[in-house]
Write a structure and sequence with these properties.
218 residues, mainly alpha, Methane Monooxygenase Hydroxylase, Chain G, domain 1, 83% helix
């Protein structure tokens, strides 16, 4: 019976890893739609989000059923409850990718960002992909020390977010209020995306160590 229980826990972890794959693809495609003002790609990101939502809902249900049928020990219970919260954060990361895609769709056929900020948002996109890839590795091979690199990637995104605020508030900004709002919101989406990744990393650390879960981001 306990072997079956562990198999179910492994299957839940595999589902979370699959969600990380989905999220990484979503933020990559959303960034592409933003950089190239591609409405078709934006639409595909928006429409496919229902798949991630369904995965999260199904995982929640499986975790509830597993808890009700078994008497999990402390670490197993942390894994189950942690998996539910991680799935929720993954779902939110997918929502943030959708927000980026919707911004790209809103301004089509124009681009939502000024030409001089294209490379900055390309960097944000690459960092978001990288942090999700690191997150998937952490999910597949839980390691408390690995959370440090995820925090470093988050710090880089935070720094860009602050710099973009400085740029749009500078008197030399020449693109108007609407563009400033677009840039600020888009930057915020990437910043929150990374915050959720850090939250997941801390949740995994809690599962491993049993130490109190403290999240300063979400």
């Amino acid at each position: 019976m306990r072997d079956l229980f562990q198999e179910e826990l492994d299957a839940i972890n595999a589902d979370i890893s699959q969600m990380a794959d989905f999220v990484m693809k979503a933020i990559s495609r959303a960034t592409e739609s933003l950089l190239f003002a591609d409405r078709d790609i934006a639409e595909s990101v928006i429409e496919s989000d229902v798949i991630l939502n369904d995965l999260a809902a199904t995982l929640d249900e499986r975790c509830i059923i597993l808890t009700s049928k078994q008497q999990p020990a402390a670490m197993q219970l942390r894994k189950i409850l942690g998996s539910m919260r991680i799935a929720s954060s993954m779902e939110r990361m997918g929502d943030l990718a959708v927000h980026v895609a919707k911004s790209a769709r809103l301004r089509y056929p124009a681009r939502s960002i000024p030409d001089e900020l294209v490379e900055t948002f390309r960097t944000l996109g690459h960092l978001a992909e990288d942090i999700t890839n690191q997150l998937k590795s952490l999910i597949n091979n839980p390691d408390v020390n690995s959370a440090t690199s995820i925090q470093k990637a988050d710090d880089k995104i935070d720094a860009i977010h602050r710099e973009l605020f400085r740029i749009v508030l500078d008197p030399k900004w020449s693109h108007g209020v609407e563009a400033a709002v677009d840039v600020t919101l888009l930057s915020r989406y990437y910043e929150r995306f990374a915050d959720h990744a850090v939250s997941i990393a801390r949740r995994i650390s809690h599962v491993i160590t049993g130490e109190a879960y403290i999240d300063t981001h979400i």
